[in-house]
Structures are given as C-alpha cells and as structure tokens.
TrEMBL record:
Alphabetical UniProt keywords: Ion transport, Membrane, Transmembrane, Transmembrane helix, Transport, Zinc, Zinc transport
Membrane topology: Multi-pass membrane protein
Any GO CC annotation of this UniProt entry: plasma membrane
UniProt name for this protein: Cation transporter
Domain of life: Bacteria
Coiled coil: none
C-alpha cells in the first residue's frame, strides 16, 4: 500500500510540475472529439456496429480527458473520484456495445468493408499518436492510468476494426463486425474494472 500511495503522490506532483501533461490532455480531447464525429457518420453510412461502437468510445474518451483536465493538480481524493466516475463510463460503454451487438445480430446486415478499413486506419493513426503522448504517464495515479488505458484500448480496438473489415470482405457476413464490437466491449469492461479498483483503493488510503 505504501508503494501505491507514493505512486499516486508522485503522479500528482508530475501533473503539477509538468505542463506537458495538461497540453497532452488538450490534444487528446480535441482528437477524440473530432474522431467521434468522423466515425459516427462513417459507421452509420457503412452500417458498421464496430465503427459506431468505436465512435462512442471516442466520445466517452473526450469526456474523460475533459474531466482529467478539470482535476489536474487537485487533491488525491478528487482525482480518485474523477477516476471512479470514468471507470463507470467505461463499464457503461461496454454494456452498450454488448447490447448493440445483440441487436445487430438479430436485425443487421453486412457492413461496407471499404469504409470500415479506411476509417479504422484513420482512427488507428489518431489513437497511436495520442497513446505515444500519454505513454510516460501510464504509471501515475488512477486518474492518469485511466487516461492511458483509454488510449491504449482505443488503438487495439482500431486494429480489430481493420481486421473485421477484412473479415467482412472475405465472408460477406456481419459476424466479423459483431465479434470485434464484442471484443471492444470486453476491453472497455476490463479497463474500467482496473481503474475502478485502483480508484477505490486510493479513496480508502485517503480515508485512513
């Protein structure tokens, strides 16, 4: 527990002393907000649940980055509370994607693989760039860790969308799209639970 306390405190001091952390968050916020609109329009046009799920993930991440900006340099209690709220966003996103995949299985048709592949590649470029900017902060407190996990999961999800596009192209079926949407939901759920546990642990530390 002592190591965790030190890690959280160090994370806060890093955020206070390093103005690059705030600039990185602003870049991540702008990139994610822009990609939400791009992927939502493309997902609707291509009838791709994986693209639509990724678009909502971009929206959730933009909200997460905005929340992180609001608590930069704040006390550990507030940063842990922000991380706790973000973990609930991630878990809620996972639930939405699972539900969307089930509905698409019942009613959906095969999406357009060309649009999926092109937009997936654009999203991957955006997320890899943001992930590289955030990499140095991946071992900070729960709030900083949640930002890193969101970006990492997004990059993995973009690769999966591109693989789904190849699968749809090869099979003419919606199954690859639905499978990838479910994988993305699993990543969001896993990351959300990790952040939730760390945030709860930090809140308990402050209470002692």
């Amino acid at each position: 527990m002592a190591d965790n306390c030190c890690e959280s405190a160090c994370g806060n001091e890093t955020a206070k002393a390093d103005p690059r952390w705030r600039r990185v968050l602003w870049v991540a916020l702008i990139v994610n907000a822009a990609m939400f609109f791009v992927e939502m329009v493309a997902g609707a046009a291509a009838d791709s649940r994986a693209l639509q799920a990724d678009a909502l993930d971009f929206l959730g991440d933009a909200a997460n980055y905005a929340l992180s900006l609001a608590v930069v340099g704040a006390a550990l209690t507030w940063r842990a509370r922000a991380a706790l709220l973000k973990s609930l966003f991630m878990i809620g996103f996972a639930a939405w994607v699972f539900g969307s995949a089930i509905l698409a299985f019942v009613n959906g048709t095969a999406p357009d693989p060309a649009t999926m592949g092109a937009v997936g590649a654009l999203a991957l470029t955006a997320n890899v760039g943001v992930a590289l900017l955030l990499y140095r902060y991946r071992m900070g407190d729960a709030n900083m860790r949640s930002v890193w996990l969101c970006s990492r999961n997004d990059a993995i999800g973009n690769v999966a969308v591109m693989l789904a596009a190849l699968g749809v192209l090869g099979t003419g079926s919606a199954w690859p799209d639905l499978i990838v949407a479910s994988i993305m939901a699993g990543l969001a759920l896993t990351g959300g639970l990790q952040v939730f546990r760390q945030a709860v642990a930090e809140l308990r530390t402050v209470a002692l």
